[in-house]
Amino acid sequence: MEGMAKENAGDYFVQLRTGWLALVRGEYAKSSAYYQKATLIAPNAIEPRLGQIRALMGMGQYKQSEIAIKALLKLDSKNYYARSSLAYGYYASGSYAEAEKIYDGIVSDYPADTEMQIGLGWSLLKSGKKPRAKEIFTRLIKIVPYEERVTSGLHYSGK
Questions:
Q1: Prediction pTM value
Q2: How far apart are the C-alpha atoms of 29 and 52, rounded to whole Å?
Q3: Which residue in 34, 57, 115, 125 has the fewest CB atoms around it within 10 Å?
Q4: What is the mean pLDDT of the chain?
Q5: How far apart are CA 96 and CA 128, in angstroms?
Q6: What does the pLDDT read at residue 16?
């Protein structure tokens, strides 16, 4: 597919598909480059930006992914994947207060999303806000009682 991508440098779909194939093979740097080419071809398209975020996150490049996410959010301010990736990136890099803000906004939009609630709970816990974290984990333990992140979160929040 890479040969086809070189031969069709101006073809959005070919660049996008080559980026996806590199992503699933774990070739994150190549994937990011192809998604960047697709973005240059179609600057308002959301899908190559999402792919590039996945590639950057796969490489652990949280600062670069933050830049890509913020550019995407200018086009689509409520994009779930972008917002959840930004929250995770902040959390993974130790910016717990920033992660909390993003997770909190997502949970407001998707109150039944247990993954985002878990992220919010852990962000609160890491920020030292144990009482609010405990509220979240106490509610979650009823919904997902065998989820290790919930049971350990409840434990560390002062069960």
A1: 0.85
A2: 9
A3: 115
A4: 94
A5: 10
A6: 96
